Automatic annotation (TrEMBL):
Gene3D superfamilies: Metalloproteases ('zincins'), catalytic domain (3.30.2010.10). Pfam families: YgjP-like (PF01863). Residues 22-231 form the YgjP-like metallopeptidase domain. This is M48 family metallopeptidase.
Length: 234
């Protein structure tokens, strides 16, 4: 069942399903979607009444998740444009040569192409470079940070690194952490913050008091790192 309610001038769309459970639960997922799990026989009127009573909380949860959305504008991939790597800005220098490659030297991304330098090919080469470095560096940081959870996590979650359109990271019920490949553009302390955030979800799936207590215990300055991430990759 799908539906929507109006609250404070905004429309909240939701998906509802009924199970054998005895109580009604409302969840807001990191992508902003709202799910209601209700006991069998619960009427649509009851579901929407409960949603209205919790609408303020739903909107607050959505605003919280919006802080993690990548908002960097579309890049044109032309000479002189700047791109981030581990928190530092590097200017593109596009050159013609016999061997296509990307090098990071003297404050520049030096990109060599065989034919006429066109933005699409420059983008492909730079994306390949980012992909390889993200796989190596983010996994390296994950292994370091995950060791701090070894005493409280019986099994370290598996890790996937891939492009994510709306989130910096996620934790699945199957025990997998997914991190946004674009995090390779952020400083290492910010990457570590996202890793800690998702590892904390392996103990506490929701953003309740227990979750934030654990997050603060493992990273007392997480709020400063979170703000730095939002400002740099906004």
């Amino acid at each position: 069942m799908r539906g929507s309610i109006a609250y404070a001038g905004q429309r909240i769309e939701y998906r509802a399903r009924r199970t054998a459970r005895k109580t009604l639960a409302i969840s807001v997922h990191p992508d902003g979607s709202v799910e209601v799990v209700a006991p069998s026989g619960t009427t649509p009127v009851v579901i929407e009444q409960r949603l209205l009573s919790r609408a303020g909380w739903v909107l607050r949860q959505r605003r919280y998740f919006e802080q993690f959305l990548p908002r960097t504008p579309e890049r044109r991939h032309v000479g002189g444009e700047t791109h981030l790597y581990l928190g530092r800005q590097y200017r593109l220098k596009v050159e013609h040569g016999e061997e296509e490659r990307v090098r990071l030297t003297s404050g520049h991304f030096r990109i060599t192409v065989k034919r006429q330098p066109v933005p699409d090919r420059v983008r492909e080469l730079l994306d390949d470079w980012y992909r390889g470095h993200a796989e190596r560096k983010i996994r390296e940081r994950f292994d370091v940070v995950a060791k701090r959870f070894s005493s409280i996590l019986p099994v370290t979650p598996s890790l996937a690194i891939r492009p994510m359109r709306r989130r910096w990271g996620s934790y699945s019920r199957k025990g997998r952490i997914t991190l946004n490949r674009d995090l390779i553009r952020a400083p290492l302390p910010c990457i570590d913050y996202v890793i800690i955030h998702e590892l904390a979800h392996s103990r506490h799936p929701n953003h309740g008091r227990a979750f934030f207590d654990l997050l603060t215990q493992m990273m007392p300055d997480w709020e400063r790192r979170k703000l730095a991430l939002e400002r740099m990759l906004a």
